[in-house]
Amino acid sequence: MDALFADLYEFTMLQAYLGEGMEAEAVFTLSVRHLPEARNYLVACGLGPVLEELEAFRFTDADIDYLATLGLFDAAFLARLKGFRFEGDVYAVPEGTPVFADEPILEVVAPLPQGQLVETLIMNQIHVQTLIASKAARMVAAAAGRPVIDFGARRMHGADAADLGARAAFIAGAGATSNVRAAQRFGIPPIGTMAHSYIQAHETERTAFEAFARRYPGATLLVDTIDTLQGVKAAIELMRGGAQPIEVTAVRLDSGDLAALSAAARQMLDEAGFADVRIVASGGLDEYQIAGLVARGAPIDTYCVGTRMGVSSDAPYLDITYKLAEYAGRGRVKLSTGKPVLPGRKQVFRTEQAGMAVGDVIGSWDEPQPGRPLLRKVMGKGRILAGARATVADARRTCADECARLPAALRSLEPAPYPVSVSPGLERARAAARREAQEAVTAPDAGAG
Amino acid sequence: MDALFADLYEFTMLQAYLGEGMEAEAVFTLSVRHLPEARNYLVACGLGPVLEELEAFRFTDADIDYLATLGLFDAAFLARLKGFRFEGDVYAVPEGTPVFADEPILEVVAPLPQGQLVETLIMNQIHVQTLIASKAARMVAAAAGRPVIDFGARRMHGADAADLGARAAFIAGAGATSNVRAAQRFGIPPIGTMAHSYIQAHETERTAFEAFARRYPGATLLVDTIDTLQGVKAAIELMRGGAQPIEVTAVRLDSGDLAALSAAARQMLDEAGFADVRIVASGGLDEYQIAGLVARGAPIDTYCVGTRMGVSSDAPYLDITYKLAEYAGRGRVKLSTGKPVLPGRKQVFRTEQAGMAVGDVIGSWDEPQPGRPLLRKVMGKGRILAGARATVADARRTCADECARLPAALRSLEPAPYPVSVSPGLERARAAARREAQEAVTAPDAGAG
Fold it and tell me: What residues in A contact B127, CB-CB < 8 Å?
């Protein structure tokens, strides 16, 4: 990632901080203020790639040359950027951990200028992955054990989102992706069927099925280009095939009444002796449609989901923030309407009973609390810690394990509450920081006369 | 862009097409089937970067090595990928052109395997930019001449979306972006104010204002960290300043009742003799809020919009498709429920009366029709045509000019219709292609028995 991927004010503030000698330690907290209505929890995602970006953070000469053209930065500052490194510490919940409103997902402890400069990068990258992982977790829950596959690359927002979204969906339990670059980058199984265009380009559907399945034994055939059940019939004929039957793993239904069509297709396949040929469904599915199909007993073995998972269509953004929580040893809060900040370094303590989560407490980092602490140190002085290099497979396991410990109501598609409270110690720290901020605004130098 | 950024089936179909000798010319059409409810038109966007990607399309050895691991591709195919180039022609509407449902935004005319392989890339890149440009056009219209600034990088979906989204918003009329990398890549003016964290890190708001404005004369001060009107008062005190007054261009309000606060701030500034200090508003704004503030006469000079523009929050995806419309000189259609395809190469003819658009006709490419043709050839045999390298500034002018020719009702936030019809010649071609497809499905080899 180019180090210029930042809002302009990060650079002007950086130069100001350096000029003012404000390089003491700061704590920045990344969290989501409010959960979208249709989310009982979020799946924290994106930490791994962000840590790699922070470790590799450098300005190129071209970056610095561009900044020089803006007329805002002096030569000494631009020279300092050449050697700029991120040398902070990072504390975070492991990727795949379910989190709730106001809970720190990540905290940066770094000299103020460094912690500030990486704001845009960290927010952007954690946001998109947490957003898509949280949506994907609902799809996976709705499918109740049937594989969910990411087919969303074409309508996710850009190539970065398509790759990171495939990663996020996989961590949240999706089984594979159609996006080959994401599969390569992140070690996700790639998967694919065939497009309508392939059928259309051939003289008949049957010719297309035969050519494809002979080349790719065990292929999945897309049967709805002309008429779904005629397509299933054509597939069956070819599987029976006489001298040279073709071998097919599944048929894919991409349009129409998927409950009725899958039932009819299942019956046709079973009666023809192809009980092991599976049925794959796709076509604008969301978690409610999947849950409806599952509830109606639709004999669909695999759900391929694209756009609605890939853009988190019902909640396409999270109210994510990256806030200064402490500077030079003093907690900082913002008083403006409705946006309280929890000061200082924090920890999330999750209490479980009989292996199931019953409530979280957000406390100060060093405050003894019952419950399992979720944040841990993952980066020290700008280097990823040895034990913190989680693979995508690790994160996927974390997500499965941690989600299994959430109450079933939370994992359903119905709204369900989960108790999160602020510890007494942290409440006291917040009150103290708020008082200090109020005193500052009414201090003699703050606008009298 | 990595050539692996494609769905897996593009590669399996590619190998199949090459193996079957199906390399005749194909036409693929990119269009949007249905407009989102709250969009009267879309702003076509993304062509420039896509053409550059197509021209540079290459496989690296690492790409080919990865594909080899999948067990799907033979050595001859992988060897052919080494020399793979996109050598097709592309026809498209100029970036910034308003388009409607079913209208071709872009058509690829290329050997079938080439036209197929670039599907994911073209769809993904045009989708995100058209999506965000279309939303941004509404923000710009709502602001009724006041500048609209892109502040969305942190919550757009990934870094690619943040850059391309800044570009799309600028083409649709936004005045600047906070995203420095996007500014550098696309020649967009970068802009920035200051963050709450900067205020919080200082002992008092006043100290922060003073330090920042002395370093950056003409800065915009963020006044709502503690209390908005107290913040305005602090800014005024410093601008009056006695011996060394600071110079401020604007104050930014980021929370609270923006109509009331902007009115109060305006009055305070005017009474203090700072009638030329502007008021900038931000904080989760969408086009309806902007229109409401404008309607109430809120004295806001500039609107900074982030998330809701950057993710097109009310309509976070478009029903965009890339469909095979012709192969080997024959129109192709898909019969499956509700998804008709217009066959062959097409043109959009826009009829204007007294300089205002009154209706479009989608016709066959070579069919004489009244009205101004919108698609033109932009790439020939894989090379961008000399006249087709539009700059971002060109596209922005196109958008302004073309949108000015739309009826005012379409540019409002209220739903308004616009007549788009299919020409008689194209209707005949569609009927013929449909007949052919139906004959194919009932042909003797298509599943009898």
Answer: 154-155, 157
